[in-house]
Amino acid sequence: MEIRVLTVEDAEEYYSLRLRMLRELPGAFATSYEEAKEEGIKQMVERLKSTRENFILGAFDGDCLIGSVGFLRQQRNKLRHKGFVLGMYTHPDVRRRGVGKALLENLLARVRSLPGLEQIQLGVAADNLAAFQLYASLGFEAFGKEREALKLPDRYVDEIHMVLKLN
Fold first, then answer.
1. pLDDT for residue 167 is more than 90
2. Taking the model in full, what pTM does it have?
3. Torsion of CA 34, 40, 161, 163, to 10 degrees
4. CB contact at 8 A, 10 and 68
5. CA–CA separation, 166 vs 149, rounded Å?
6. What region holds the N-acetyltransferase domain (predicted)?
7. Per-residue confidence (pLDDT) for residue 42, from 0 to 100
8. What is d(CA 141, CA 71) in angstroms, rounded to the nearest whole number?
9. Alpha helices in 112-154, H assignment, sequence order
């Protein structure tokens, strides 16, 4: 397995994976499948113009993209001590094989060297125990629960907010 920062050349494959994740797990992501389809692949190209502080990692099995995770650092002066993990997903065929953990470990190794970054936050659906346990195993701690954070057509999804302090 290779883990690397995705580039604009990966847009089509990432777009396909993103649509799959949004369709498969609507309660895990703020963006809906329909919104992503409407935005189209051009939005993916923009998102894949990465910087040292904002990027999307991809896990590849050969040429096949099997997982991804994003990082976004706050830009305002009073918020620059925080960054966010976004869009964590692994293909169903490779779950519980360490792909998600490897993606997160790679992300953490990359961002630990960012000057002034003190904490990394994320949100996880309260009913996603496997994801919560993965984050906790890497040192993330829950600091709050947002009830009805997402509204789906048939239900609400509560979200647990987690943080990893780097200092």
1. no
2. 0.93
3. 170
4. no
5. 26
6. 1-167
7. 84
8. 18
9. 129-137
Q: CA 11, CA 39: separation in Å to the nearest integer?
A: 13
What mean pLDDT is predicted for residues 86-98?
A: 92
Residue 99 has pLDDT above 80, yes or no: yes
Please tell me the predicted confidence (pLDDT) of residue 112: 93
Look up residue 141 and give its two tokens.
């701690």
Q: Which residues in 107-135 are b (16+ Cβ under 10 Å) and which e?
A: bbeebeeeeebeebebbbbbebeebbebb
Residue 52 has pLDDT above 80, yes or no: yes
Confidence band, pLDDT 50/70/90 cuts, at residue 46: confident
- In whole numbers, what is the pLDDT of the chain averaged over residues? 94
At 57, list the tokens.
């990692």
Cα–Cα dist 68/108, whole Å: 14
Euclidean distance between CA atoms 87 and 18, whole angstroms: 9
Q: Which residues have C-beta within 8 Å of that of residue 16, sequence separation ≥ 6?
A: 65
DSSP assignment of 17-85 equals HHHHHHHH-GGG-SS-HHHHHHH-HHHHHHHT---SSEEEEEEEETTEEEEEEEEEE--STTTTTEEEE
